[in-house]
Design a protein that fits this description.
Blueprint lengths: L26 E3 L9 E7 L10 E7 L3 E8 L7 H22 L7 E5 L2 H8 L11 H12 L3 E5 L16 H11 L1 E3 L2
Parallel strand pairs: 2-5, 5-6
Antiparallel strand pairs: 1-7, 2-3, 3-4
Helix pairs in contact: 1-3
């Protein structure tokens, strides 16, 4: 609803993508000293919008708690899920590298987790294939970041993907686990 009229923020529980803040007025983002290294989580919600079939890209960067996050509709239509995931990965790498530059060498390779096995296989396979020519630039950008050891991609199952919290309707027990992992706490 709010994509048509950004003047209003709809606070209801109509489904994924709608912000329900009724139970979060006493929730805060809490940072604690942590030895956890910087890591990222990416997820693309392929062809989610029924109006234009554009995918959502979700990104979450964490180090003990959420540092940066984004859920945004992709600018172009992805013809398959791996392509949607590549769009998302490319933008996440850009954000992660900016954060790495800001931290000026305090972090090594940033672990980035995704839940798309097809995209993970393309990253792990260093051989270029003609069937991936349409995502060639993004693929080469990702490959260069991996080769320079700026980032390291790993597969993480959908059931463990905290970036899903940004767009999908997730059952309460699992969403509470993701919220805790992001550093969201309840103030009493």
């Amino acid at each position: 609803m709010s994509q048509f009229n950004t003047k209003y923020l709809y606070l209801d529980n109509s489904g994924p993508g709608y912000l329900d803040t009724s139970g979060t007025l006493d929730t805060r983002l809490t940072y604690r000293r942590s030895d956890e290294s910087l890591c990222g989580f990416v997820d693309a919600n392929w062809c989610n919008c029924s109006l234009d079939r554009r995918s959502n890209r979700d990104m979450l960067l964490m180090s003990g708690a959420a540092i940066s996050w984004e859920s945004r509709k992709q600018q172009s239509v992805a013809t398959f899920s791996t392509k949607a995931e590549y769009y998302c990965m490319t933008e996440t790498i850009k954000d992660a590298l900016n954060l790495k530059r800001f931290l000026r060498g305090l972090v090594g390779a940033i672990a980035i987790y995704n839940d798309n096995q097809g995209a993970q296989k393309q990253i792990d396979n260093t051989v270029h294939h003609s069937r991936t020519k349409h995502i060639d630039i993004k693929q080469r950008f990702i490959r260069e970041a991996v080769d320079k050891e700026d980032v390291k991609f790993s597969y993480l199952s959908t059931e463990q993907m905290p970036a899903d919290l940004l767009t999908k309707g997730i059952p309460r027990p699992r969403s509470e686990d993701y919220e805790r992992a992001m550093g969201l706490t309840t103030c009493t």
